Amino acid sequence: MRIVTPAIYAALLGGAIYIAIAQNPLPNAIASAPPEGAKIAYAVPADGKSQPATRVGKRESCRQTVATKHLGRHQARDQMQLCVAQARVECLKQAIDQKLRGSARRVYVKSCVAA
Fold first, then answer.
1. Which residues pair with residue 42 across a beta bridge?
2. How far, in Å, CA of 13 to CA of 6, rounded?
3. Helix and strand totals (H; E) in the chain
């Protein structure tokens, strides 16, 4: 009995791991494609050294905009939420124009806000 119970648990754990690995991921073509019409800003190093450009998405640009205003903690949080909500609405309008539906629209809006 001492050997049977751990063997059963090990088999169940192995089966769960196998099932988790065998699942299909989200469609990479939709998630990795940059949204059409999305403006992508690149950070430029101030010291003049050539470093790889980093992508700055709409959420990060909202964060930078709020940081430059030097607001209090609660006001900054409110402005950040407002800016991200406006970015989501813009991305949703683009998704509607492209006639995306369901999970494709959801993935597009998430990638648009992040990109």
1. 55
2. 10
3. 5, 2
